[in-house]
Amino acid sequence: MNKFIHTYQSDIIYSGVVITSVVVLYILTRVLYNWLNKRRKEILPGAPIRPIVLIKHILTLLWLVLGAIALSFTFIDLDREALLKDYFKLFSYLGVVSVVTIIAVMVSNLWFNYKISEKIENKQDPTNFKFLRYIGVFIVGFIGVLLFLYAFPSLREVTQTAIGGAGILTLIVGFAAQEALANVTGGLFIIAFKPFKIGDRVLVSDTMVGTVVDITLRHTVIRNFENKMIVIPNAIINKEKLINFDLDEHKICERIEIGISYDSDIDLAKQIMQEECENHPLIYDNRSPFDRQNDVPLVKTALTALNDFSITIRAWAWARNYQDSFSLKCDVLESIKKRFDREGIEIPYPYRTIVMKK
User: Fold this and answer.
1) Residue 186: exposed, middle, or buried by beta-carbon count in 10 A (0-12, 13-18, 19+)?
2) Which residues in the chain show pLDDT less than 70?
3) 114 phi-psi bin (left φ>0, alpha ψ -120 to 50, beta other)
4) Which residues does 76 contact at the CB level (< 8 Å), separation at least 6?
5) Could you tell me if 273 and 260 are in contact, meaning their C-beta atoms sit under 8 angstroms apart?
6) What H or E segment, with its residue span, contains residue 42?
7) Residue 17: CA atoms inside 13 Å, Cβ hemisphere, count?
């Protein structure tokens, strides 16, 4: 036993140093993880923990792999020592690139989130920072992937071409397809020309009405009034004719139309519609000082159509915003119907005259 220890004394000491180093690095990784997690809860309680967990796993795996390679030096001949050194450098490089990339993505994402929160607190538009966050995180991650691939000789030429910029357009068009490129371009146009921004209430179609909650590189997300998320590709929403209820002025004119029978009193119907609209608490006075001085009515009513079996009476009622206008219309339609019933104003069913011929 003493002879064995004496013969392999240097190898035993070397192995002990390697194992001890791996254990110490593992303990330090755990300490670093606990410290980062504690700081995250204190400073940024809403920040995700997944990047920190991923860094811990990568470092733990890196120490184990490097320790195994280092221990292998005691069992191989001199001819393979150069190969192990190359493996040691390769895994060290990959581990460092992976950790730095994750940290860079996490920091850039946190910085953009901070700027977005700052804009919201100051009641400013955060749309640009929300959109640029996706671009910034993508660029950082893309550079990290290129540096990762650069470590492999067979992929080094492709990586150098992509870094040089000559192959980026080809990669986008060839692999991401024209539709994906159109969505990215559409997102850039939305940010540049601002037909709408985050927080605006928009109407894309009768089934797509809601508040814009996010604008990404690919799509725009709208939360409708049923709290459902509508995801619309940027290329499509750029082609649509949409209504932005929050662009410039928020006030809106709601047209309330009801058909009455030809036998009903038109003046009484107009008076009832005007009174019910004016008495509603959500009505908005959009008259100018000149109009008020000349007693222009708050709600204008008029006969707008003579139909086959009814007469259409319309009232123009103003509200402060789209949400108020919708509530006002629902309430006023109900109150007008009840007043019509009491005052004898008929809302007719369709009439058809049938002529019998021999």
Assistant:
1) buried
2) 1-9, 11, 44-46, 77-79, 154-178, 180
3) alpha
4) 84
5) no
6) helix 9-43
7) 8
- Write down the domain spans for the chain: 252-343
- What CATH number has the domain spanning 252-343? 3.30.70.100
* Mutual angle of helices 127-149 and 81-121, in 10-degree steps: 180
Q: Using an 8 Å Cβ cutoff, are 130 and 198 in contact?
A: yes
Q: Where are the beta strands (DSSP E) in the chain?
A: 201-205, 208-215, 219-224, 229-233, 243-244, 252-260, 300-306, 311-319
pLDDT digits (tens, 9 = 90+) for 42-75: 776 667 778 888 888 888 888 888 888 887 777 7
Q: What DSSP character marks residue 247?
A: S
Are 189 and 174 in contact by the 8 Å Cβ rule? The answer is no
Contacts of 90 (CB under 8 A, 6+ apart): 151
| CA gap 310, 268 in Å, rounded | 15
CA distance 160 to 264: 82
Return the closest-CA partner of residue 311 out of 288, 339, 271, 345: 345
Which residues, 6+ apart, have CB-to-CB distance to 121 below 8 Å? none
Q: How many CB atoms lie within 10 A of CB 238?
A: 19
What is the C-alpha R_g of the chain?
Answer: 35
Which is nearest to 127 in space by CA: 211, 206, 51, 225?
211
**Are the CB atoms for 298 and 283 separated by under 8 Å?**
yes
Residue burial 207-234, b: 16+ Cβ < 10 Å; e: rest: eebbbbebbbbbbbbbeeeeeeebebbb
Contact between residue 146 and residue 155 where contact means Cβ atoms under 8 Å apart: no
Tokens of 72: 């292998």
Please count the other Cβ atoms lying within 10 Å of the Cβ belonging to residue 111: 13
> Taking the model in full, what pTM does it have?
0.55
282: tokens are 């959500």
- In degrees and rounded to multiples of 5, residue 106 shows phi and psi of -65, -45
